[in-house]
Input
Amino acid sequence: MARRRLGLLSVVVPVYNEEESLHALRARLTAALADLDFECILVNDGSSDATPDIARGFAREDPRFKLVSLSRNFGHQAAVSAGLAFSKGACVAVMDADLQDPPELLPDMVREWAEGADVVYGVRISRQEGLLKRAAYHGFYRLLASMASIELPVDAGDFAIMDRRVVDLIVSMGEHRRYVRGLRSWVGFRQMAFPYNRAARHAGSAKYTLQKLFGLGLTGMVSFSYAPLRLAALTGAGISILAFAAGVFFVLHRLIGFRILGHTPEDVPGIASVFVLMAFLFGVQLLILGLLGEYVGQIFDEVKKRPVFIVDELVGLDPARARGVPEPARGAAVESSADRPEAVER
Output
């Protein structure tokens, strides 16, 4: 394969209340990409601090920095999708604003893309979170990989470089609940792992709460695996077989009268065991109903056809530039400072 020419690199950075990290992010990103033609699209996901004001200031001072502000907090995956939709680079990088994904690695990842890789995804060989969180991540990635209907790399987050055609395919997908790293694997093409050590947060606290992490993991599981449904069916079948066998056994025990551990049919206590069995079966039923409800809920979200995000403001970007974004989702109060730098302030 011929070596790709290094064109524009789009760097998509979702930001949510990251005022303490943005200046360091800008300094490290511009230093790391000094030899590359790049744009940085900061996607403000409904921040309540000074994040959007700082991002507007960046766009005023440096036209390479752009801002997409969403109308509310739509979530990390929706913010990533918004940045991808407005990107125009020959290749697109996705990274978080907390600097756990080092910007200094981007030039090496771009070189791998130039050599022919369509996706260069970061694989975390170490991370700085607490032991419990590391163990949870370790277990989840391997559980999802073992159950998914496609090949999903373990310990790989959203940090990646993607070719333009991969980005366009991801943007064109109409899924409302998005698990971007799963979609990235689903499209296929030539994918390459890029091992790295994940740093601690530069500042502030993690925005992914335990509830959000659980929701993201559940979305990934439901979107890319039917295994929970099959497991529920197998569990139901197994319990039915055991119940039938137990029924036959106890009928024979009652009719024939043989002893069980020295007990005759007349003196075998049964009330406690019945209650335990009933509680177990009710628990299994609720678990299965919950799994079915999760799949039905995802279908319900998809059939409503609501946009993945709604844009409130654009700075340094043309609204018509968005790829695969319905007109209503671009918002009614959108400004572009692409041709008018003085229009950065609303």
